[in-house]
Write a structure and sequence with these properties.
The chain is mainly α. 73% of the residues lie in helices and 0% in strands.
Length: 312
């Protein structure tokens, strides 16, 4: 009888190995922070350009009311769809102070864009919005690596270069003071929003929008008491633009929070605060505002800064 295996019986099959499941590719947290930060700059810059246009054709308070209402509704719907839990006490506190800072910042920015030059107001606001979180981030998380530290420095320099602009016609004021106030408000908002619980985004942003709406509502009441009943009414033709501004602004907020949760606060804040580049490019393309050679150099420096931050 052959000593081999009997053909009528099978040898026990080897234990089945678990199927080869290749993990779904995910973005590295460092790259995620860079990507979300840049998306925030694009959406914030586009929204601010639209907000400035709308504020030239309608009262700034009215534009902010419409945009905040749209942003509030959008954040609420997305929070429900994502099934986010209700914000805890800490998130409520950070969202409340963030809403106050953001409301002051956005009202100041839109007013400055309406009465001043886009190429002056937006970059000044961007510098402060970046510088304040960089200081706080360094204090809380330590200094970043050499490449990223150089990129952060270049990014701030880039925004300064882009902000160098003269008004040869003398027909519009610079709006510097409103840029400073807007930058302070945005910088504080960036710091406060970065403290939201990781994974919770749109719930706290609902609170932020509600606080901002209440702040703007108080300003409306104050202006009406002075007899200015038209301080908030938006013409029908401007409403769609104001609504689009609300969508863009909410997207910018969400992308920034995601960037801050994925990586460092200073990286998220600096990248998102380069939104003036978007605003100025749109102003150049659509409004005919001319960029000087220094401003063009600032755009090139911004590109270098992005590369260094991403490489770091």
């Amino acid at each position: 009888m052959p000593t081999g295996r009997c053909p009528s019986r099978r040898a026990p099959a080897p234990a089945a190995s678990p199927p080869d499941r290749t993990p779904i590719p995910t973005l590295d947290p460092g790259w995620a922070a860079v990507a979300f930060g840049l998306l925030s700059a694009l959406t914030w810059g586009s929204a601010d350009f639209g907000g400035g246009l709308a504020a030239r054709r309608a009262p700034v308070l009215g534009v902010v009311i419409v945009s905040q209402a749209v942003g509030l509704t959008l954040a609420f719907v997305i929070a429900l769809v994502r099934g986010e839990p209700l914000p805890g006490p800490a998130d409520l506190a950070w969202a409340t102070v963030g809403g106050l800072a953001g409301g002051i910042g956005i009202a100041s920015l839109y007013h400055g864009l309406a009465i001043g030059r886009v190429a002056v107001v937006a970059p000044i606001a961007g510098v402060l919005a970046a510088a304040l979180p960089v200081v706080v981030g360094a204090a809380l998380q330590g200094l970043p690596g050499p490449a990223r530290l150089a990129g952060i420095g270049l990014a701030i320099v880039a925004v300064v270069l882009v902000s160098i602009s003269a008004d040869p016609t003398g027909q519009r004021p610079s709006g510097v003071r409103f840029g400073l106030l807007a930058g302070l408000g945005f910088g504080l908002f960036n710091v406060f929003a970065s403290r939201f619980t990781v994974g919770v985004v749109f719930g706290p942003l609902v609170v932020v929008r509600a606080v901002e709406a209440a702040l703007i509502g108080a300003l409306v009441v104050a202006t009406r008491r002075r007899g200015n009943d038209r301080a908030w009414r938006v013409p029908r033709g401007v409403v769609p633009l104001a609504m689009a501004v609300g969508v863009g602004d909410m997207a910018g907020n969400a992308f920034f929070v995601l960037a801050a949760q994925a990586g460092r606060l200073d990286v998220a804040a600096v990248l998102s605060s380069m939104y003036p580049v978007t605003t100025i490019v749109l102003a150049t393309a659509l409004l005919g505002e001319r960029m000087s050679s220094v401003q063009l150099g600032g755009v090139a420096v911004a590109a270098t800064a992005i590369a260094l931050i991403a490489a770091g």
